[in-house]
TrEMBL record:
Residues 60-167 form the TonB-dependent receptor plug domain. Residues 1-20 form the signal peptide. It is a multi-pass membrane protein. Residues 254-651 form the TonB-dependent receptor-like beta-barrel domain. This is TonB-dependent receptor. Keywords: Cell outer membrane, Membrane, Receptor, Signal, TonB box, Transmembrane, Transmembrane beta strand, Transport. It comes from the Bacteria. One of its GO terms (biological process) is siderophore transmembrane transport. It is found in: Cell outer membrane. Belongs to the TonB-dependent receptor family.
Length: 681
């Protein structure tokens, strides 16, 4: 059977998800895909990459659909991701009240520092900041997304060298999901506002999307009332993002172009403790779904970061990180040759170059005079080559692949001048390069329609970021030094899982895993109020993950839970840390969301979320107590496409401790009620 691409615009916008193709071009629908009754014509949804391969379910994956993404109480991307137990940032704060450089993403309790150990992709493009490795969560509006797939563990494979703890794949919504016009306006009891809009018209043989969002507010006091001083400030924020996407069919080839610009200003703890991030991202993706399937991506990123540190005793600036320009350039090419129905072969290469510098001034807390100027930076590159094959043998699917990465760490330097301009330190670090070979293998056995068994072994690696290598930082009064001699982190692990369909609409999944990160990078205490980034012997994490879902008519229930026994393996300088739990890592985390369609197009949902106790640092002496929160979301149609939206964050007013340094406390979001209108969701 010959497969045709129907290129009529209306048909493209009404189409089901993209169809996987056999070697001869014939369509074979997966369980999430379908063929419309149009004879032998197959309709593809535009704007997606190549379909997932048969071996994908062999690894521990969770998918969030659009409804789960856009119905969070906070309206933030990181809140939606928190529905996957085991996802965490370095601190518990969200992107309205956290320092951006602390917002790395990780999975499976493999934390310990603020860099991302999970690879976050937006339409196939890495999203992490090229210098710091944090994720600019405020730049990605949840209402622009169609789905999220989280793969916990699973190794690097075809995703890139940064997928140490797993991969988080964000997919943009297509024009069918967005509709021609979407808009929303909400405000909370403090006067904070959230404005969002998009336009997605049909153009040529495809569509275009223009979108923007603006969040601003006076915020809340992160400092507990009994610790506030006259200099204490609310966590003010003012963030905007704007972008566009064009998706077009050019014959049998689909072209996707995307651009994004954003800026986010925040104030943390004290007046004058201001920080900001900004960025401009562009990408071009070309997809061909013919007998030889092709997915080619090229992208560029330009980012910056600023931060002012205020003394917690004299409440004056002591550090001005005034400029941290960085760039990330890269691309990916994947080929899937026609090998017949049984095999899906992936051949690919990807490349990323991260380059950046910092410029900062230090000041005396007593005189206000500049005491030092600092300059640092460097460049990391990574060229990866991979091959992976999925082999279907009846009800058994075997998957495996190998990846080789050639990396360089080069042009590193650190220079410090006194307030008078004299050279205090002038270091040029030697260039380094090496190969890292990683692999992964898994099996999926569908015993019947209700029971599947899966298992996987894998390795992966992560380069230290430019931030970890070259940039010291201060969370007053603690100074953390950089370390230009850091080695890459390497993970080895295995997992085994069971997926059950207990009844129509009722499913559960359980996974047991054992992961070990050798040369794990952590902030290690080396003196009073002094830490340094160092490679530990290892972090070991063993645990259990559970997920369940129920769909019964208008009612749905989705829950996840993760229990992880994580500990540091340390000898030599790290011997005092041996057996300690890594910083910021809870043993137990869980999320449960119950939703009910109260009327057609109307939804009421409640989310119960718990995170266990964590330690602030590596010494296990400053505890962040466990926290349980309840969030509420309501959506009620009013007229045509106009709806009323009500949201409540932290309904019970739980004190969520996000920082504890010798009793100096920061708190997370208090009870916050939002009310507003939406059009077109």
């Amino acid at each position: 059977m010959k497969t045709l691409l129907l290129t009529g615009v209306a048909a493209c916008l009404l189409a089901p998800p993209a169809l996987a193709q056999d070697a001869d071009g014939a369509g074979t629908a997966t369980e999430d895909e379908q063929i419309l009754p149009l004879g032998q014509q197959v309709i593809y949804v535009l704007g997606q990459g190549l379909p997932e391969t048969p071996g994908t379910p062999a690894y521990s994956t969770i998918e969030l659909d659009r409804e789960q993404i856009v119905t969070t109480a906070s309206g933030r991307l990181e809140d939606a991701l928190a529905n996957v137990a085991g996802f965490q940032q370095f601190r518990r704060s969200d992107s309205r009240s956290a320092n951006p450089s602390a917002q790395g993403a990780t999975l499976r309790a493999l934390g310990g520092n603020a860099s991302s150990r999970a690879l976050v992709l937006l339409d196939g493009v890495p999203l992490a900041d090229p210098f710091f490795g944090y994720i600019p969560f405020s730049a990605v509006a949840p209402e622009r997304l169609g789905s999220i797939r989280v793969t916990r563990g699973g190794g690097s494979g075809p995703f890139g060298g940064g997928a140490l703890a797993g991969t988080i794949e964000l997919e943009s919504a297509d024009a069918r999901d967005l509709g021609l016009v979407q808009a929303s306006a909400l405000a909370n009891q403090r006067g904070d506002t959230e404005l969002s809009a998009s336009l997605a018209p049909e153009i040529g043989e495809g569509y275009a999307v223009i979108h923007g969002r603006w969040d601003r507010g006076r915020g809340f006091f992160t400092t507990p009332e009994d610790q506030r001083v006259p200099a204490s400030a609310r966590a003010r924020y003012d963030a905007w993002s704007a972008g566009g996407r064009v998706v077009q069919l050019l014959g049998d080839v689909e072209v996707q172009a995307r651009a994004l610009a954003f800026k986010d200003n925040r104030t943390l703890r004290f007046e004058g403790a201001d920080n900001s991030i900004e960025g401009q991202d562009v990408s071009l993706r070309v997809v061909s779904r013919g007998p030889w399937q092709v997915d080619a991506i090229a992208y560029g990123q330009w980012r910056n970061f600023t931060n002012v540190v205020i003394s917690s005793t004299r409440f004056v600036p002591v550090l001005d990180q005034k400029d941290t320009p960085a760039s990330g350039l890269g691309g990916k090419l994947e080929l899937r040759p026609p090998l017949g129905d049984a095999h899906t072969l992936r051949l690919g290469a990807d490349f990323r170059r991260s380059e950046g510098e910092l410029f900062e001034d230090a000041f005396s807390a007593f005189t206000g005079a500049r005491t030092e100027q600092r300059f640092a930076g460097g460049m990391n590159t990574d060229l990866g080559l991979y091959v992976e094959d999925d082999w279907q043998i009846g009800a058994l699917t075997l998957t495996g692949g190998v990846r080789a990465d050639r990396y360089t760490i080069r042009d590193g330097f650190y220079r410090a001048l006194s307030g008078a301009g004299a050279v205090v330190m002038d270091e040029v670090y030697p260039d380094r390069s090496d190969w890292e070979v990683t692999w992964r293998a898994g099996a999926l056995a569908r015993l019947n329609d209700a029971v599947s068994l899966r298992g996987a072994f894998y390795t992966s690696f992560r380069l230290p970021t430019l931030n970890e290598l070259y940039r010291p930082f201060v969370v007053f009064p603690v100074t953390t030094q950089a370390n230009a001699a850091l080695l890459p982190e390497r993970l080895e692990g295995w997992e085994a899982g069971l997926d059950l369909t207990l009844a129509p609409g009722v499913a559960v999944a359980a996974t047991w895993f054992d992961n070990r990160v050798d040369d794990a990078i952590a902030n290690v205490t080396i003196g009073p109020n002094l830490r340094q980034r160092r490679n530990l012997d290892a972090i070991e994490a063993r645990g259990f993950e559970f997920a369940a879902s129920v769909e019964r008519g208008p009612f749905s229930l989705n829950g996840t839970a993760a229990y992880t026994d994580a500990e540091v393996v340390g000898t030599g300088f790290a011997a005092p840390l041996d057996g300690n739990r890594p910083a910021q890592v809870p043993r137990f985390a869980a999320s449960l969301t119950a939703a009910y369609e109260i009327v057609r197009g109307g939804r009421l949902a409640a989310t119960l979320r718990h995170v266990g106790a964590q330690f602030e640092g590596d010494q296990e002496d400053d505890v962040l107590p466990p926290a349980t929160t309840i969030d509420i979301f309501g959506h009620l149609p009013l007229w045509r496409e106009l709806s009323l939206v009500a949201r409540v964050e932290n309904l019970t007013g739980e004190d969520v401790v996000t920082r504890n340094q010798a009793g100096s406390i920061d708190l997370g979001t208090p009870r916050t009620a939002w009310l507003g209108l939406r059009w077109g969701y």
